[in-house]
Amino acid sequence: MINTILRFGAIIIILILLQILLFNNIQFSGYVNPYVYIMIILLLPVVTPHWILLIVSFMTGLIIDLFSGSPGMHTSATLLTGFSRPYVLRIISPRDGYESGPDLSMKDYGLRWFFIYATTIVLIHHTVLFYLEVFSFAGFFRTLLRVLLSSIFTIGFILLIERYRKGR
Amino acid sequence: MRNLLNFLLKYHNIIVFLVLEGIAFYWLTTGNNYHNSRMVKSMQGITRGFEERINNSRGYFSLREMNSNLATENSELRNEMERFTRQENLKFVSVTDTVFKQQYQYTSAKVINNSVNKQKNYFTLNKGRRQGIKVDMAVTSGDNVAGVIVGCSENYSVAISLLNLDFRLSARIKSNGYFGSLSWDGRNYRHAVLNEIPQHISVSIGDTVETTGYSAIFPEGIPIGKVSDLKKSGSDFYQITVELYTDFRKLYYADIIGNMKKTEQLELERQFR
User: Fold this and answer.
1) In chain B, ranges of CATH 2.40.10.340 domains
2) Pairing state between β B208-211 and B191-195
3) CB B125 within 8 A of CB B150
4) How many cross-chain Cβ pairs, A to B, lie less than 8 Å apart?
5) Cα B132 to the chain's mean position, in Å?
6) Which of B105, B111, B147, B203 is the most buried (most CB within 10 A)?
């Protein structure tokens, strides 16, 4: 139990640092902003109580907001993603159900399942985030393009990190 | 009472969610000016120090280019100085001008945080109230428009970047003097849009766009960019795309310009509104 908490503490700190130090500085163009920190919500164990999930999402979003100078955008988007995670997990549950393993990794559940799971969560997060950023539906399709392009990069980075996280 | 408790127990997740989302939305809708939020203010000390450290290390990568920019600026300034000293030598008299009063004061500062990839971009400078920076001062970079100060703390200030959907600037075309309103459309960080230029005047690609002195923030005639594309749309106005001179991705140093006569002008104008 304590071990799991420490492990996730480390994961959370590493991902937040990665986001602030590396991915916030990528500024590839206005269309591509990978937000890899959402992986924190992705990896938490299946057995995590819903309210802990909510608080972790809130704190994560808060820290990212403070460091990227945006008011409440990341907080609301991450919180909504954290809220919807149990429902997503229920809908796309793998054939054998979930094991009570330490976390939801690609190694345990296979690339295909993990890809679908990551895509769903990232799309929810990015859609909310980018529409909150412009705060209007004017230029709907341009924002949609930003959502899609950024999601592709975020998912790519997440799969890459996940590939090397546990080693082969 | 028991029903209430049962209700709370049954829906505690949704209640926690709604409360936290309420806090986030409150922050989102009221804190848009970045500085209004109390929480941000108290966290600033920590995050700013952090940002400054990141930026210090990032500065090394662009030293070469910064050097060459500084060198060109130096030579330009030296040329200008030469002109003035020559004139004085010719006259052989010293003039103390008591009527002249300086209108603009200049300070330079370092950009310690910046972004170009959001829709509402801000950047942070390492000078604040203690160094005489005030809200609504103009920010330029290498003599081109960069932004306007929107918030100051003791030692730092935040400026709204030209690359922000909320930014409006009164701008004119240098060759014919017609003015319009310049804003960013959120697409490309190298381009902005100049509106309200009527179609009956002639504008050509390559014309310089500069500030008007109307807002009492920017001095008159500071270059913004050049016309890179113009379209005649259905309305009476051109759609002019302006290529910005300032490369916001390479913003390392900025000059802050304060208008010393601004309060006077605004007070006078207020009487007629």
Assistant:
1) 103-273
2) unpaired
3) no
4) 94
5) 17
6) B147
Give me the number of domains chain A comprises: 1
- pLDDT tens, B222-252? 899 999 988 887 778 888 999 999 888 888 8
Report CB contact under 8 Å: A71, B165: no
Structure tokens at B262: 């601004």
CB contact under 8 A, B188 and A83: no
Contact B120 A21 (CB under 8 A): no
- ipTM (interface predicted TM): 0.81
Nearest CA in chain B to A28: B117
Closest C-alpha among B40, B64, B46, B181 to residue B122: B40
Chain A residues near residue B28 by CB distance under 8 angstroms: 71-73, 75-76, 132
User: Residue holding tokens 């304060």?
Assistant: B258
* DSSP E strand stretches across chain B: 104-113, 120-125, 138-141, 144-152, 157-164, 169-173, 179-183, 191-195, 208-211, 223-232, 238-244, 253-259
- Strands B157-164 and B191-195, sheet pairing: unpaired
Which residues in chain A are contacts of B17 at CB distance < 8 A?
A: 54, 79, 83
> What is the topology classification, in CATH, of domain B103-273?
Thrombin, subunit H (2.40.10)
